[in-house]
Amino acid sequence: MARYISELYNRFMSLRLTDVRALAAGIERLTIWLRRQTPTEVSSTTLTALDRLRREGPLRVSELAAREAMTQPGVTILVNRLSDAGHAERLPDPTDRRATLVRITAAGEDVLTRREAARAEVLRARLAELSDTDRTLLTAALPAIERLVATGNEESRKTD
């Protein structure tokens, strides 16, 4: 098992374009499958914005726009929808009286919690169909996936 994981690691570390494309396609298929299996009452754009606000705390609209790769007018419309639905609120920026911050509310947290619980249940059922080896391999890959995502988040902050 350890040798197989080592070989798999070495294969992906070679960064062959075909491997990278296959990994990207697999991640995309998993994401699409999870979305289809667990529909929510809000859009994926709303979910990603709420998730960012939960992870990073209150942000200015301009910061949220940059980190979500959206236009500032688009994020303003999104924040208006979030606020109207009670999923986020605007606060005065303590460092700049002219600016406001956007913060997730308890209702917004609840939307994310329900989505995560639904996805976890669907994924748990599907994982139960896999072999112990496959589940071990997926679990072993989690730290690398987290590092990959963390690096991407750091890069988005540097562009602000």
The percent range for strand residues is 5-15%
Helical content band = over 70%
What is the residue-averaged pLDDT?
89
Termini separation comes to 43 Å
Over all CA atoms, what is the radius of gyration? Answer: 19 Å
CATH topology of the domain at 44-149: Arc Repressor Mutant, subunit A
- In total, the number of strands is 3
Organism: Jatrophihabitans endophyticus
Keywords: DNA-binding
Protein name: DNA-binding transcriptional regulator, MarR family
GO molecular function: DNA binding; DNA-binding transcription factor activity
Structure description:
This protein has a domain at about 45-150: Winged helix-like DNA-binding domain superfamily/Winged helix DNA-binding domain (Arc Repressor Mutant, subunit A), CATH 1.10.10. Helices cover about 75% and strands about 10% of the residues. It is built from seven helices and three strands; from the N terminus they run αααβααββαα. The chain has a three-stranded antiparallel beta sheet.
